[in-house]
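Example 3.
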Amino acid sequence: MRESLNDILCCPVCKGDLELEITEQEGDDVLEGTLHCGECDETYEITDGIPDLLPPEMQD
Amino acid sequence: MNLQESASTVVGTDVNPAATRRARDRGVEAVTTDLAHGLKGEFDLVVFNPPYLPDTDETPDDALDAALAGGESGVETAERFVEDLPRLLSPEGSAFVVASSHGDVDRLKKTARKKGFVVDVAARDRFFFEDIVVLHLEPR
């Protein structure tokens, strides 16, 4: 995902903003990292460029 | 994908990671999420092709079923989406939603009107045993 995509992402549970932490990127493209919701204290993974914003109960 | 040439941001969502993987592999920004729950507005154009067939005992309970069956009346998934839609659209924005004549399209229209949308049929076409209908939703 592009780094700026985080502007239109939100926590699927509380709709709050997410804090992006990048562990691997290629230019503007975030490949690995996390999106953290401070309100829910929930962390969502970015894997291979795709953020997984399924609520915790729907994740594998 | 053509939209990417004219829009500043284009993003696709799916609840199935295999689908978002495929979109990303084709160069489309993709987010794995239920409907648009992980996105916030404001979007000028939202297109939703939901699972729109009524769920029956004959349809198997697997990923393909989830991609086809939209609840008992066929429109429950689309209704859940429409309930969430006001949050996502810009004031001038609009949405297109696909439905089948096998589903309860009138019920979906009613739900959309109740949520404050003007609803009209943008397109209708006969495919084998069903009519595929595209509804256009605009904030009133």
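The longest strand of chain A covers residues 29-37. Residues 3-52 of chain A form one domain.
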